[in-house]
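Extended Data, panel c. Modelled sequence:
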Amino acid sequence: MIQLYQVSREKPEKRWLTAASELDSTLSGNNTRFKSFKSARVWIPDVEEVWKSAELTKDYKNGDASLQLMLEDGSNLEHKLDPKTKNLPYLRNPDILVGENDLTALSYLHEPAVLHNLKVRFIDSKLIYTYCGIVLVAINPYETLPIYGTDIINAYSGQNMGDMDPHIFAVAEEAYKQMARDERNQSIIVSGESGAGKTVSAKYAMRYFATVSGSASEANVEEKVLASNPIMEAIGNAKTTRNDNSSRFGKYIEIGFDNRYRIIGANMRTYLLEKSRVVFQADEERNYHIFYQLCASSHLPEFKKLKLSNANDFVYTWQGRSPVIEGVDDTKELCTTRHAFSLLGINESYQMGLFQVLAAILHLGNVEIKDKDSDSSIIPSNNNHLTAFCELVGVTYEDMTQWLCHRKLKTATETYIKTLPRLQATNARDALAKHIYAKLFNWIVEHVNKALITNIKQHSFIGVLDIYGFETFEINSFEQFCINYANEKLQQQFNMHVFKLEQEEYMKEQIPWTLIDFYDNQPCINLIEAKMGVLDLLDEECRMPKGSDDSWAQKLYNTHLKTCSLFEKPRMSNRAFIIQHFADKVEYQCEGFLAKNKDTVNEEQIKVLKASKFDLLVELFKDEEKATSPMAPPAGAGGRTRLSIKPDKSRDTSSKEHKKTVGCQFRNSLQMLMDTLNATTPHYVRCIKPNDFKQAFSFDPKRAVQQLRACGVLETIRISAAGFPSRWTYQEFFSRYRVLMKQKDVLPDKKLTCRNVLEKLVQDQDKYQFGKTKIFFRAGQVAYLEKLRADKLRAACIRIQKTIRCWLARKKYLRMRSAAITIQRFTRGYQARCLAKFMRRTQAATLIQKYQRMCVARKRYRQKQAAALAIQTILRAYMARQKYQALLRESKVVIIQKHARGWLARRWYKRCLHSIVYLQCCIRRMRAKRELKKLKIEARSVEHFKKLNKGMENKIMQLQRRIDEQTKENRTVNEKLVGLESSYTTESERLRGELGRLRGVEDDAKNKGNQLTSLLEELEKLKKELSTTQQEKKTIEDWAQTYRTEMEKMVSELKDQNGSLKKEKDDLNRLIQEQSQQMTEKMARTIASETQQLEKDLNEERSRYQNLLTEHRRLEEKHDDLKEHISKPGHRRTDSTHSSNESEYTYNSEFAESEEGSRAAEDLTRGMDTSLTLKLQKRLTELEQEKQSLRNELENKEEQFQRARARDETEFKKARGAELEYESLKRQELESENKKLKHNLAEMRKSLLGDAAASAGAPGSPAYKVLLDQLNSSCEELEVRKEEVLILRSQLVSQKEAVQHKETMTEVAVHVEDVSKLKDADELKQAYIGLKDTNRSRRFACKRLEVRGLLSRFRSTAPDVQKLNEDGELWLVNQGLQETIRLLEHQLQTQRRSYDSEVESLRGELQNVKEENNRQQQLLAQNLQLPPEARIEASLQHEITRLTNENLELVADDPTASREARVLILRRMVDLMEQLEKQDRNIRKLKKQLKVYSKRIGEMGAGQAEGQTSPGQMVDEPIHPVNIPRREKDFQGMLEYKKEDELKLVKNLIIELKPRGVAVNLIPGLPAYILFMCLRHADYVNDDQKVRTLLTSTINSIKKILKKRGDDFETVSFWLANTCRFLHCLKQYSGEEPFMTHNTSRQNEHCLSNFDLTEYRQVISDLAIQIYQQLIKCMENILQPMIVSAMLEHETIQGVSGVKPTGLRKRTSSIADEGTYTLDSILRQLNAFHSTMCQHGTDPELIKQVVKQQFYIIGAVTLNNLLLRKDMCSWSKGMQIRYNVSQLEEWLRDKGLMVCGAKETLEPLIQAAQLLQVKKKTDEDAEAICSMCSALTTAQIVKVLNLYTPVNEFEERVSVAFIRTIQTRLRDRCVSPQLLMDTKMIYPITFPFSPSSLALETIQIPGSLNLGFLTRV
C-alpha cells in the first residue's frame, strides 16, 4: 500500500515512505558493514577541519571503547566512542568515487563525504558546480572563469542534463526542455547567503534563455531582459562586508515564451527592499551603487546642475567609510546603466529626472538640523544643501524648512502644529529620504516591466527567483526576520518537492515502501504566520496608540514561551527573542520592529512633494495614500506582487483600519510567490560562499558546512541515504560487474543475469531492490561491490603476472640452451675452416707460380708489339699532317678572296642605297609638308587616334623586339667588358710596377746629381775645416750607425704592419662576403615570412567576407519572411535559413507571379506601420555597405600583397643597382689612374729630357732613351684601351633605359639569377670594397697617424742625414715614402668624391624610373577598365603626353639632344600617320562590304522558307518529338530561345528539376552548360537586356530552390556543383588569357565577344559561397546527432571502457528514445556525402574542402564534449577515441583525401586522446606533454588533466602539483584562452579554376528536360 505522509499529533514530524529499513540504521549503516580489520579508512570529527580522515591501525571488536587510528600526517590517535550510542565513525568512499559530478553517486552518503567531494572538486579540479540529486551546488570561486561564453552555451544547448558536467546552463537547459516537452511552467530557485553568487547565477540563467531561444519579434526582447540586470543592480545592489555586489532585495523574474518557445517578454516582482541602507551603512559597507556612480560622474557637463561632488562629501554615502570598490569604475558603470535605460525605452529626459531625484536625496541627507530647545529644532537659514534639494525637486524652501522641523496633529475638533525635537526631526528627514527612494525604485521597476511587456499571447514562462538566503548576524532585526521567514517557506516547498520526486521514482520502479520519520518545519512557519503568531502580534501592537517594542516583546513571551518549543527567551535580555529555524537558532532584537513595520512618513512632507513643479516627482506620488496611519503601506518593501495589480478604488483611502503593514504585505506577497512556485516545476541552485575573505579558490570547511546545512543540501543527502541512493540500470550493472560473473551465469536476459549474480554476491536481500529498469542499492553496497571487483581484478593480475614470469623464465632457459648449441657449432666450424684454409693456400701457391710465369712471358711479348705499333703510328701521323696543312692553306686562300670580293660589292651597294634614301627623304619631305595641314585637322578625330594607336601598338611591339635584341647585345657587351676589364687590370698592374721602378731610377738620378754637387761643396768645406771636424766625425759616425740600425728596424716594422694590413684587408673582404650572404638569406627569409603573413591575412579577410555573406543571406531571409508574412495575412512564418534576395550586383527581375504577389503585399501593407520594414531596409543597406567595404579591404590586402612583391623586386633591383654602381666606380677609378699615370709620365719625360739636354754626356743617357721609348709605347697602348672602354661605356649608357624597362617587366626569379651571376665577380671588386672599408676603419686611421709621425721624424732629421750620410739613401727612402702616401691620399679622396656623385646620380635615376613605372602601371590599370574604343584613345593620348614630356626634358637638359629628339618624334609621328591612313582605308572598305553582305542577307531571308530562322528569333511552331533524319551541320555551341520562353527555361531547368535523375542519367553539370549556351547566344546577338534578365533569373531561381529545399543535401550539392561549373564556364569562355591556356582552338572560338561579365562572375561566386555554407550547415545538421554517440559513447572496442557509478542526474526525464549511433553510421554518412558530390560532378578541390570542414566539425564537437564531460576523461576512453580516429583516417586513405588537410583538423582530438593515455607523474612526463600537445591550448590541457577520472582502482588521479607544473611550463605559450573550439567556424572557401574539356557543340539536350523550345545554333 502506498501512502504519501502521515502527521503525528504528539510530535511536529512527518512520516515518509522509504525502503525496508529505518533512517538511523541506514545513516549509520556505514556501521552495518563497517570494516573491522586494519587499513579501513574513516572520518572523525575535528575542530578546525570539521572532519578529518584517518585509518585503522588495529582491528576493531565489538565492545571496544576506542579505535586506534593513524591520521594522514602520520600521527597516531585514539578515538573514543560515545559510551551511550556506541556509534562508529563514518566510512570513507573508495578513491575511485571521489570527485564525482553527483553526490548521490557516492557509495557512502553522509556529511563528511559530501564536504570532501566538494572540496576535491573545488580545490583540486577547479570545478565550482556539483549535482546533489535535484540540486545544483554552486561554489563562488571569486574569480572570473572562462566557462560562460557563447561556445559553452551552444555546447549545453540540446544536451541531456546528466550527459554533461554540472553547470548552471545545464539546469537552465533542463528547465527549457521540460517547459517545451511537458507544457508546464518552470522555476529556477537560486538561494544562498550574501556573497555566495546568487545574482550572478540568476544572470547567467537568463543569458542562457536569451541566447538559445531567441526573440519572437524584431524588438530584441532578449536584449531588454538582459539590460534590466545592470539597472536593478545599480538601484538595488550594494557593497556589504560579505559581498561587493550584494542584492538588497529579492526578485522573481518571469520570462515569457510563445507557443514556439521564443522569448516574448518578461515581468519582474520585487520583495523587501532594504530601505534603511539609504540612510545608514555599517562600517566597510556602501549605499546603493547608483549614488556612487552619480558622484563619480559629477564632472560631466550634463550633471553640473545636480551640484554633486565626491561621495565623501555626503552623509548618506560616507557612513560606511568605504566609498570605492577595488576593480570597479563607477563612471563606466553609470554609462552601462544609462545605456540599459535607453535600451528599455527610458529616454534622456526621464533619466536626468531620475538622477535629479537621487541627487536630491543625497542633498537631503546633508541637511543639518540643530536643537532650538529641548522640544524643538531648527534648520539654519540659507542651508546650501536644502536649497539644492528644493531646486532639484521643485518645492519652496520655506515649506520644507517648516515641515522638516514640525508636524501636524489632528483631533476631533481642531488641528495644531507641533514642533519636533532634533532626533525626531532627523528621523523624519531620513524617513522621507527612504520613502522617496522606495517610490523611485518602484517607478523604475514598473517602467522596466512596461518595456518588457508584449502584445503577443504568453504560452508559458520560466521564473528565475533570486532571493536572499538564510541570514544570521550579531544583531538581527526586522529585515533578517523576514528573510529567514521566506527561507522557511522555501525550505518547506523544497522538502515537499524532494519527497515527491523520490516517491515518483520508487512508484515508477515499483519498489515497496514503509514509513520513516523526518523533520518538518511547519511548526516554525506556524509560529511566525499563524494566528497569534509573531507577525500577528506585531500588527496588533502597531494598531495600539501607545504600542512599543518592549510591550510587543512581553506579548511574545506571554504567548509562546511556554507553549512552543521553537521559541526561546535570551537569559540576559528582555528586548529580544530566539526562534529555532530549520538551519540554526537566531536571536532577534525587538528594537525598531514596530517602526519598520509601520514605515511612517510625515503626511505634510508628502503634500509638499506632491505640490512640486517637478513632473517626475509628482508622478512618483500620484497614487500616494496618507502615511500618517500606523499601518501605512510600505512603498519599498516589495509588497507589490504584480505591477499590473491596482489598488481598490472603492476602498476608503482615509480609513485607517484596513491599511496593511510591511509584515502583512510581505506575508501576502510571499504566499503568492509560493503559489506560483507550487504551480511550476522547480529547479534548485544552492550557492555556497567558500570563505569570508573573498579569496579565489579558498575553501573554509566550517563556513561550507554551515551553509550546506542551511540550504538543504544535507537534507537531500539524508533523504537519499535513507532509501536507496545508488541506482544502476541493468545494462550499466552488467557492463561494470561482468568480471564478477562466470560464463555459465551470463544469460540472454540481462535482467535475470543481474538478479542471479546479486543474490550470490549480497546475501542480505534488504540491501538492494530490483525495479523495472534499475537496481536500487543501499548506502555502502556499491563500495562493497567495487571491493569485490577490485579483488577479482587483482587476483587476475596476479595470475597474469605468474604466467608471464613463467613464460619469461622458460624463454630465458631456451635462449641459454640455444646459445650453448650455437657456440659448439661455431667452434667446430672454425676448426674445419682452418683445415680448409691450409688446403686452399697450398693449391693457391701452385696456381700463383703458374700464372706468374705466364705473366712474365706475356709482358715481354706486349712490349715488343707496342714498340712496333708506336713507330707505325708516328710515321702515319706525320704524313697525315703534311696533307692537312696543304688542304688548309688552299681553303684559307679561297676564304680571303670571298671576303674581299664581298666587301667591294657591299661598299658599292651602300653608296647606291644612301643615294636612293636621300632622294626618298627629299620627296617624302615635300609630301609631308603637303599633308601636314590635313594631319593637323585629322589629329583630333577619333579615327585618327585609332589609326595612331594601331600604329603605336605596332611600334611598341617593334620597340619591344628591339629591346630584347638590345638586351642580348647588352649581355654580350657586358661579357666583353668583363674580359677587357680583367685584361686592362692586369696590364695596369704591370705598368704601375714598371712606373714605380722608373720613379726609383729617376729619384736615384736626381739624388746622385744633388749628391755630387753637395759633395764637391762639402769637400771644399772639409778641406778648410778638416782640423776642426776630425774629433766630431767619429762621434757623428757612431750616431749615424745607431740611427741606421733604428731605421732598418723601423722599415722592418713598417713591412710587418703592411703585412698585417693586408691580412686585415683579406679578413674584411671575407667578412663582407659573409655579411652579403647573410643579408641575402635574411632577405629571402623575410620575403618568405611576409608572403606567409600576407596569405594568412588574405585568408582572414576571405573568411570575414564569407561570414558577411552569411549575415547578408540571413537578413535577406528575414526580409523575405516578412514580405511573405505581410502578403499572406494569417500565414504563420516558418524558420528559413536560405535567402532568395538577389545580390547588390543584380537587377530586380522577378517572375510574373512574384511580381503580382509583391504588388498585392504592397496594397495590403499600405496602411500598416512600416517602421520595421524601414529598419530592415536600413540594416540591409548598412550590411551591403559593410560588404562593399570588406570587399574593398580585401582588394587593398591583395594590393598590399602585390606591393610587397614589388618591394621585393625593388630590393633585388637595388642589389643589381649596387653592382652597376660598383662597375661604374671601377671604370672611374681606372680612368683616374690612367690620367694620373699619364700626367706622371709626362712629368718624368720632361724631367728626363731636361736632364739629358743639360748633361748630354752624363752616364746612363742611352738607358734613359730606351726607357722613354718603352713608356711611349705603353702610353699608346693605354690610350687604345681607354678608347675601347669609353666605347663600351657609351653603348651601356645608351642601352640603360631599355635595360631598366626590361627589368621592371621581368619576374623576381630573373633578378635572383642576375644577382647570383654578379656575386661571382672578379677579385678586384672585393679588393676595392676591402680597401674602402679599411680606409674608413679606426685602426687604419691610427696607423696612418703613426706613418705621419714617422714622416715628421724624417723631415726633422733629413738635413742631418743628407749631411752625414754619404750616399743619401735614408733621405731618398723618406722622400719616396712621402710621395707614395700623398698619392694614396689623393687617390682615396678622388675615389670618394666620384663614388658619392655617382651614387647620388644613380639614386635620382632610380627614383625617376620608379615613378615612371608606377605611373605606367596606374595608366595601364585605368586603361584596362575602359571599353575597347576608349582604350585606344587613352593609350594614344598617353603616348602623346609621354613624348611631349620627353621632349621638354630633353630641351631642359640638352638643346642639341632635344633637336635630335624632335626629329625622331616627327619621324615616328609620320609613321603613325601613315599607319592610321591605312587603317582608315581598311575600315571604309570593310564598312562597304558589311553593307553589301547585310543587304544580301535581307534578300535571302525574305526568300527562304519558314523552317529557317534568323539570329535573335525563335521558332513559333511546336517541336514534334519525331526525329527527321538530316545531315549534321557544324554547330557553334549556342542555344537560341525566345524572350517569352525565359520563364519556362528557368522553371524546367532549375525549379522543377530533380537532382537525383539528372545526376544519375545525364552528364554532370548539364544545367550549367545549357544556361551558358543560352547566355552565349544572347551575347552573340548583342542583346544586353537578354543577358541581364537571364543571369538575374538564374541567380534568383537558384536562391528560390535552395530556400525551398535547403535541407536536402542532394539538392544543395547538385546546385553547388552546377553553380561552380557555370562560374568556370564564364571564366573559361571570357576571352581573358589566364583562363584560355587549357582551351582548344575550337573552345577559344566560343568565347564571349560583346559583354564583359566580370561583375556577374563576382555575384555568382558569392552565390556559390552561400550555397557552400548552406551545404556545410546541412551536413552539420545531419552529422551533429551522430558525433557524440559514435565518437565518445559507443564502445567500438568492446570491453575496454568500464562504467562507473552514476548519480541521479545520469538519466533524467528529459531523455527521449533515440537510436544509438556508431562509428559505422558516421562512415556510411560520409560515404553518402562523398558519392553524392562525385555523382554531381563537384570539383575535386571543392570536395577536399568539404571533407576538411566535415572532419573539423567531427573533431570540434567531440573535443568540446570531452572537455565538458568528466565521465569521458579516462584512459580507456582515450583508447576508444584513438581507434575511432584511425578509422576516419583509413576512410580518408581509401578515398585518396589524405592531402586535403582533413587529418590535421583532428589533431587537437588526437592529442587530447593521447593526453588521456600518457603517464602523468614526473617532470619528464610534463615536458613530454607540453611538446606533444601543440594543437591544444593551455586551458584545454589543464581542463583535461583536471577532468581525468580513473575508472579502475589501478589508475591514479592527476596530482595538483603536476597540473601546476604543466601550467608553469605552458605560461609562455601564446595561444587563445578559449576553452572550447568554435563548432560554427567555416574555413574560407576558394573555387580554383577548373576548365572543362567538354566541347559545347557536342552537348545533346535530353527530351526529359522538356526544353524543346531551345534551338541549337
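The first strand starts at residue 5 and ends at 7. This feature is highlighted in the accompanying rendering.
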